[in-house]
């Protein structure tokens, strides 16, 4: 068996130990005689899987009992609607900070359900940075302030949690959740699709401050209503059981790695090594302001785009795959989430330098 270094932005690589454990438990989950996929979500086995996953996630992120943790479906994209539907409503203003493609999608969807207002945007500099907090046009009466903590396509990341005063802070954390410690108490709502840094596609994590449940209107569809999901322990209908199980294996793996402080240290080293190589070369370049660069998604272009296809095919020959940039950006993108080991980034940097020497 050969495992490649998979730089996919999502669905993304999972820790090999997680996959091995899932394989070992596939046919007979801990003496139950069946796979987790085949077991009732209300049975003893799955109840324990669900509870352990939640308590490990709470431990990793330091989530207090002031917050409910939900394991939902529909992706981060459904949360683009759910957040304004639950927390704002048609008459209310919600502020959005737009730093790339996902932020644009979030505000476009929100505009159908509330008065969505651009509080700040870096569109005029081609989304190459996080706009200075001092220049944001935020309303102290807004229902919430929304931002995207890591723009997966453009490779722009917030390295601090922005001030929002008494306005609940809402964040799409899909592509950098669990990559370093965060202070959950700063947020009203955190949401994240699982397929970047947690587990398989099909699971969405929602972390919501409980006092905000009072805002959820009964008239919402049940499947969109945080209050309904919270009251039912995310089991108001059949949850994505297998994805929830794999997420739980990843949380346990993260604890074994030393938790989020240890992950942050490795993630910083990986990103520094890759950006260092890009910046030191005259052949590769990254357009993002250094202070806003993502530690998770590193887009870069070759000085000669005619070499893109050769770069990709020679990289694949070395077991370095899924490096093609997003279709809206072109060039390359290396996604280096928690499951990408330092050795994978080192192998990529080595390949890049050899490619430049041969073809640059
Ligand atoms: C991938 C991604 C999304 C979309 O997630 P889906 O689960 O496909 O809905 C939204 N926001 C960010 C930041 C992402 O990386």
What does this structure look like?
The structure is a single chain. A hairpin with a 4-residue loop joins β6 (150-151) and β7. The longest helix is centred in the C-terminal third of the chain and has 22 residues, at 259-280. Helices cover 34% and strands 16% of the residues. The chain has helices spanning 16-24, 44-61, 75-87, 101-110, 226-231, 241-256, 259-280, 308-317, 342-359, and strands spanning 5-6, 67-72, 93-98, 115-121, 145-148, 150-151, 156-157, 169-172, 189-193, 204-209, 284-285, 297-302, 320-321, 332-335. Bound molecules: pyridoxal-5'-phosphate.
Mean pLDDT: 97
Structural class, judged by helices and strands?
Answer: alpha/beta
Contiguous helical run count: 9
How large, in whole angstroms, is the Cα Rg? 21 Å
**Main sheet summary:** 7 strands, mixed
The stretches of 5 or more residues where confidence is low (pLDDT under 50) are none
List the strand order in the largest sheet. 2-10-9-8-5-3-4
Order of helices and strands: EHHEHEHEEEEEEEHHHEEHEEH
Q: Quick one: how many beta strands?
A: 14
Q: What is the overall shape? A: globular
> Gap between N and C termini, in Å?
33 Å
